[in-house]
Specification:
39% of the residues lie in helices and 13% in strands. The chain is an alpha/beta fold. The chain has one domain: Alpha-Beta Barrel (TIM Barrel), CATH 3.20.20.150. Strands 1-10-7-6-5-4-3-2 form an eight-stranded parallel sheet. A two-stranded antiparallel ribbon has the order 8-9. Helix 3 runs parallel beside helix 4. The structure holds manganese (II) ion (2 copies) and zinc ion. The site of one manganese (II) ion has 4 residues, from loops.
């Protein structure tokens, strides 16, 4: 991959998770209309097991429209049902299959990154959960061949879930055979809910340092920029519009001042009447212009 996104100028790669409803190529137009310079999609139904079959025509259209609109970068997000840490053999094998299908669809669509959730060991032990995730990533990695990077996303930290601590991400990356295929996606809402202070200057510094020590800041390929309904350490995974939650405008100012503010920023903010996507975009751009 020859994309130098590590040092992308702050806010130059910014966008939303957009819908693929109707046909996958329509996501490109949706992102374009919102003023995005990067965007994220599900490549299949996020709440089902059965993969959506992509036809060649929509794949072609997606690739063409993306070039036409000048999107250098697109992210995919894995469906929600898979649990790559599950001790239940049937759930686990379907989860691994879903991951492999996702990587294959990304290759077809020329999407260079896919975001995955790490799942829950369901009380059967952290170590066993990590081993199952590592096995799944090793299988997927043999498909990636430098064309797709798998980004592990941090979680808000519900009981038995893996991925709320940077140490978890470290254990997984240390375990995989080809760590070059694996990166990290930091979700601000999840990090805050898991107890990482990203609101105060000292908290941001400590959090960035902890990411660097455990994972390496160069492995952060994406920021999910979401405000949070729940408070610091609440373990509540509920996203809020930028500035309207408990992180707040001043919190995002401090966060975006850090080196993580240079990464692509994707919002997964709510869809409701209180605030439009366009207005969330305006708020973030205003914050960045005032850094
Ligand atoms: Mn996610
Ligand atoms: Mn997220
Ligand atoms: Zn979330």
């Amino acid at each position: 991959m020859n994309m130098n996104i590590q040092n992308a100028y702050k806010g130059s790669l910014i966008g939303f998770h957009v819908s693929i409803q109707g046909s996958i190529d329509l996501s490109v137009e949706r992102a374009y209309r919102l003023g995005c310079t990067a965007f994220q999609i599900f490549t299949t139904n996020p709440r089902g097991w059965r993969p959506r079959i992509l036809n060649d025509l929509e794949v072609e259209r997606f690739i063409e429209k993306r070039i036409e609109k000048g999107f250098k970068i697109v992210f995919s997000h894995m469906p929600y049902l898979p649990n790559l840490a599950s001790p239940k053999i049937d759930v686990y094998s379907r989860s691994v299959e879903t991951l492999l299908n996702e990587v294959s669809r990304c290759i077809r669509l020329r999407i260079p990154f896919t975001v995955v959730h790490l799942g829950s060991h369901l009380g059967e032990g952290y170590r066993n959960g990590v081993r199952r995730i590592v096995d799944a990533l090793n299988l997927a990695s043999s498909l990636c061949k430098g064309r797709v990077k798998i980004l592990l996303e941090n979680t808000a930290g519900s009981p038995n879930s893996i991925g709320s601590r940077f140490e978890h991400i470290k254990d997984i990356i240390d375990g995989v055979r080809n760590s070059g295929d694996i990166g990290f996606c930091f979700d601000t809402c999840h990090g805050w809910a898991a107890g990482y202070d990203i609101k105060t200057v000292s908290g941001v510094n400590e959090t960035v340092e902890e990411i660097d020590e455990n994972i390496g800041v160069e492995k952060v390929y994406l920021i999910h920029l979401n405000d949070s309904v729940g408070g610091l350490g609440s373990h509540i995974d509920r996203h809020e519009h930028i500035g309207l939650g408990s992180i707040g405008v001043d919190g995002f100012k401090n966060f975006l001042k850090s080196c993580l503010g240079e990464r692509p920023l994707i919002m997964e903010t709510p869809v409701d009447e209180r605030r439009s996507d366009l207005d969330n975009m305006r708020v973030v751009k205003k914050i960045i212009s005032e850094l």
